[in-house]
């Protein structure tokens, strides 16, 4: 099968032929249809310090995907050949204290798909059945492919009550954009999102935010005045990992404000802890998704009309992966999708199935 592999300890990825994975005990084999390019994948392609210190090569990369089930191991229940599925990319041990208590997202022994084991940028991938999410309702495969980052957005956005609240989101990358869509959808009063990319801020406006602010030309205080806010924001969703953005968020919170922080800083930096203490601000770190409450929330949000389609801006065949990665690395786009189905796709997503999807559906019905 074809797969995108980090073959050598240098910048780049290589599209090569590798053996198809075999289903192990309790696993499911999936024919990949779509994949999403993540910031982690960009780090791996660049082969930066994090990648050099983390990866064991060679490695098939990628962890955002959807596909059809083509094989299940004996004893696997509730998953059938032909099911359209996405995958939870954090594979947990099931035996540590947090796993045993049902807090699997806090497992300290987590193995990352496409980081610590071969991933989903390939024609086939295997996963433990417990990591497979079956889409029971109709869903566009492009949206199904980004359930992993969508889950990050939902986990972050729903960490604190949002109904009637004023919400500040720093960072309008794909996950920040999805978090903005969620906050607006569930009933926040005002949602202000900040970035320095006009292209990404335009995407945020399509998602219905109250204000998309370019902090290269306007201050957060100016944004607050435009929204008529006098006491600061109730909830902050930090998606950038940028030190300046974090400091500005802390300075802009109301007393008793709550911050959920998903953005991962590249290095340590100082913040105004006196303001955190005297303003009684709560800061909560977010990593990944709650298994599987977040996945349930995602499916219900889409079922109840949340539209993520504006977040997906670019689609490429997997054979054009270099152009796709360059586009994702530009910092001016939303989500970039790779098509592994072998069928041509229009620029905008269609509800019509590809040949591979139609074949899988027919096989399941037979």
Automatic annotation (TrEMBL):
<dbReference type="InterPro" id="IPR020843">
    <property type="entry name" value="ER"/>
</dbReference>
<feature type="binding site">
    <location>
        <position position="99"/>
    </location>
    <ligand>
        <name>Zn(2+) 2</name>
    </ligand>
</feature>
<protein>
    <recommendedName>
        <fullName>L-threonine 3-dehydrogenase</fullName>
        <ecNumber>1.1.1.103</ecNumber>
    </recommendedName>
</protein>
<comment type="pathway">
    <text>Amino-acid degradation; L-threonine degradation via oxydo-reductase pathway; glycine from L-threonine: step 1/2.</text>
</comment>
<dbReference type="InterPro" id="IPR036291">
    <property type="entry name" value="NAD(P)-bd_dom_sf"/>
</dbReference>
<dbReference type="InterPro" id="IPR013149">
    <property type="entry name" value="ADH-like_C"/>
</dbReference>
<comment type="subunit">
    <text>Homotetramer.</text>
</comment>
<dbReference type="GO" id="GO:0019518">
    <property type="term" value="P:L-threonine catabolic process to glycine"/>
</dbReference>
<feature type="binding site">
    <location>
        <position position="195"/>
    </location>
    <ligand>
        <name>NAD(+)</name>
    </ligand>
</feature>
<keyword id="KW-0560">Oxidoreductase</keyword>
<dbReference type="InterPro" id="IPR050129">
    <property type="entry name" value="Zn_alcohol_dh"/>
</dbReference>
<dbReference type="InterPro" id="IPR002328">
    <property type="entry name" value="ADH_Zn_CS"/>
</dbReference>
<dbReference type="Pfam" id="PF08240">
    <property type="entry name" value="ADH_N"/>
</dbReference>
<feature type="binding site">
    <location>
        <position position="63"/>
    </location>
    <ligand>
        <name>Zn(2+) 1</name>
    </ligand>
</feature>
<feature type="binding site">
    <location>
        <position position="64"/>
    </location>
    <ligand>
        <name>Zn(2+) 1</name>
    </ligand>
</feature>
<dbReference type="InterPro" id="IPR011032">
    <property type="entry name" value="GroES-like_sf"/>
</dbReference>
<dbReference type="InterPro" id="IPR004627">
    <property type="entry name" value="L-Threonine_3-DHase"/>
</dbReference>
<dbReference type="GO" id="GO:0005737">
    <property type="term" value="C:cytoplasm"/>
</dbReference>
<feature type="binding site">
    <location>
        <position position="107"/>
    </location>
    <ligand>
        <name>Zn(2+) 2</name>
    </ligand>
</feature>
<dbReference type="Pfam" id="PF00107">
    <property type="entry name" value="ADH_zinc_N"/>
</dbReference>
<keyword id="KW-0862">Zinc</keyword>
<feature type="binding site">
    <location>
        <position position="96"/>
    </location>
    <ligand>
        <name>Zn(2+) 2</name>
    </ligand>
</feature>
<comment type="similarity">
    <text>Belongs to the zinc-containing alcohol dehydrogenase family.</text>
</comment>
<feature type="binding site">
    <location>
        <begin position="286"/>
        <end position="287"/>
    </location>
    <ligand>
        <name>NAD(+)</name>
    </ligand>
</feature>
<feature type="active site" description="Charge relay system">
    <location>
        <position position="40"/>
    </location>
</feature>
<keyword id="KW-0963">Cytoplasm</keyword>
<feature type="compositionally biased region" description="Low complexity">
    <location>
        <begin position="351"/>
        <end position="366"/>
    </location>
</feature>
<feature type="active site" description="Charge relay system">
    <location>
        <position position="43"/>
    </location>
</feature>
<feature type="binding site">
    <location>
        <position position="175"/>
    </location>
    <ligand>
        <name>NAD(+)</name>
    </ligand>
</feature>
<feature type="binding site">
    <location>
        <position position="200"/>
    </location>
    <ligand>
        <name>NAD(+)</name>
    </ligand>
</feature>
<keyword id="KW-0479">Metal-binding</keyword>
<feature type="region of interest" description="Disordered">
    <location>
        <begin position="343"/>
        <end position="366"/>
    </location>
</feature>
<feature type="binding site">
    <location>
        <begin position="262"/>
        <end position="264"/>
    </location>
    <ligand>
        <name>NAD(+)</name>
    </ligand>
</feature>
<feature type="binding site">
    <location>
        <position position="93"/>
    </location>
    <ligand>
        <name>Zn(2+) 2</name>
    </ligand>
</feature>
<feature type="domain" description="Enoyl reductase (ER)">
    <location>
        <begin position="12"/>
        <end position="338"/>
    </location>
</feature>
<dbReference type="GO" id="GO:0008270">
    <property type="term" value="F:zinc ion binding"/>
</dbReference>
<keyword id="KW-0520">NAD</keyword>
<comment type="function">
    <text>Catalyzes the NAD(+)-dependent oxidation of L-threonine to 2-amino-3-ketobutyrate.</text>
</comment>
<feature type="site" description="Important for catalytic activity for the proton relay mechanism but does not participate directly in the coordination of zinc atom">
    <location>
        <position position="148"/>
    </location>
</feature>
<feature type="binding site">
    <location>
        <position position="38"/>
    </location>
    <ligand>
        <name>Zn(2+) 1</name>
    </ligand>
</feature>
<dbReference type="GO" id="GO:0008743">
    <property type="term" value="F:L-threonine 3-dehydrogenase activity"/>
</dbReference>
<dbReference type="InterPro" id="IPR013154">
    <property type="entry name" value="ADH-like_N"/>
</dbReference>
């Amino acid at each position: 099968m074809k797969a995108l592999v980090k073959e050598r300890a240098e910048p780049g990825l290589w599209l090569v032929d590798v053996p198809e994975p075999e289903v192990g005990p309790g696993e499911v084999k999936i024919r990949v249809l779509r994949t999403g390019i993540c910031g982690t994948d960009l780090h791996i392609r660049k082969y930066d310090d994090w990648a050099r210190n983390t990866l064991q090569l060679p490695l098939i990369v990628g962890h955002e995907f959807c596909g059809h089930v083509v094989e299940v191991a004996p004893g696997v229940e509730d998953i059938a050949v032909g099911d359209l599925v996405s995958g939870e990319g954090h594979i947990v041990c099931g035996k540590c204290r947090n796993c045993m208590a049902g807090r699997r997202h806090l497992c300290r022994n987590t193995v990352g798909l496409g980081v610590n084991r071969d991933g989903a940028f390939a024609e086939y991938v295997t996963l433990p059945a417990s990591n497979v999410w079956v889409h029971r309702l109709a869903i566009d495969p492009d949206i199904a492919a980004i359930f992993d980052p969508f889950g990050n957005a939902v986990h972050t956005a729903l960490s604190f009550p949002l109904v009637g609240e004023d919400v500040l989101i720093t960072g309008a990358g794909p996950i920040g954009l999805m978090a903005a869509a969620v906050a607006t959808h569930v009933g926040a009063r005002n949602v202000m999102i900040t970035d320095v990319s006009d292209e990404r801020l335009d995407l945020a406006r399509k998602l219905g935010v109250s204000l998309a602010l370019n902090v290269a030309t306007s201050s957060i205080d100016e944004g607050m005045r435009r929204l008529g806010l006098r006491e600061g924001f109730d909830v902050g969703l930090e998606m950038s990992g940028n030190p300046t953005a974090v400091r500005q968020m802390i300075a802009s919170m109301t007393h008793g404000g709550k911050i959920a922080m998903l953005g991962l800083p590249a290095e340590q930096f100082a913040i105004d802890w006196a303001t955190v203490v005297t303003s009684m601000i709560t800061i909560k770190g977010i990593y990944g998704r709650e298994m599987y409450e977040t996945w349930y929330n995602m499916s219900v949000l889409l079922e109840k009309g949340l539209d993520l389609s504006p977040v997906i801006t670019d689609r490429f065949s997997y054979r054009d992966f270099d152009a796709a990665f360059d586009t994702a690395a530009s910092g001016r786009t939303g989500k970039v999708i790779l098509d592994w189905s072998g069928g041509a796709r229009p620029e905008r997503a269609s509800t019509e199935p590809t040949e591979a999807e139609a074949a899988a559906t027919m096989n399941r019905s037979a």
